[in-house]
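Recall the central idea of this unit: under ordinary conditions, the amino acid sequence of a chain determines the structure it adopts. In this exercise we apply that idea directly, starting from the sequence alone.
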Amino acid sequence: MDLQDQLKNLFPDHVQTESAENDSETSKIWMQDDPIICKYEKRKGKPITILEGYTGANEDFKALAKEIKTTLSVGGSFKDDKIIIQGDYREKIMKILQEKGFSVKRVGG
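Accordingly, the structure predicted from this sequence is:
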């Protein structure tokens, strides 16, 4: 149950206006003030790129992970509020996130 459903349960007589619906459709992913951390590690001798520090909903972060993986045609996963991408794709990922309007901070090497 998301926030919209909870509000509908609390205020069943409320009628949502058109302008409020248009605002929610234009910004589907939560934008944040703090930058997303993009760092590089090696696990079991293989390079990985880790994205962390997103403060929005997990579903938005999962959707962002899927979009990055399909854009780069690489494997990866979403665990413990982190996106793990196989390989060193820091520059490409940072470019994708900056085009979406996120601020990104590169950490390490």
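Residues 24 and 30 are 10 Å apart (CA to CA).
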